[in-house]
Amino acid sequence: MYSTAFLDLPALQAAAGEVPLPGSKSISNRVLLLAALSSGTTTVHDLLASDDTRVMLDALRQIGCVVDESGGSTVHITGLGGSTPLSPAKLFLGNAGTAMRPLTAALALLGGEFELSGVPRMHERPIGDLVDALRQLGCQIDYLGNDGYPPLRIAHAQGVPALALAAPIRVRGDVSSQFLTALLMALPLAAVTQPIVIEVVGELISKPYIAITLQLLARFGIVVEHQNWQRFTIAAGSRYQSPGDIHVEADASSASYFIALGAIVTGATGQKDAKSGIKIQGVGLDSIQGDIRFVEAARAMGAVVTGGPNWLQIDRGAWPLQAIDLDCNHIPDAAMTLAVMALYANGTTTLRNIASWRVKETDRIAAMATELRKLGATVEEGADFIRVTPPERVEDWKPASIHTYDDHRVAMCFSLAAFNPAALPVRIEDPKCVAKTFPDYFEALFSVAQVAAPQIPVICIDGPTASGKGTVAAAVAQRLGYGFLDSGAMYRITALAALQAGLAIDADHEARIATLAQTLPVRFEGSKVLLGSDDVTDAIRTEEAGMNASRVSALPAVRTALVQLQHSFRRLPGLVADGRDMGTVIFPDAPLKVFLTASAACRAERRYKQLISKGFSASIEDLRADLEARDARDSSRSVAPLKPAQDALVLDNSDLTIEQAVEKVLTWWQERQPFAASAQR
Question: Are 401 and 493 contained in the same domain?
Answer without folding.
Answer: no
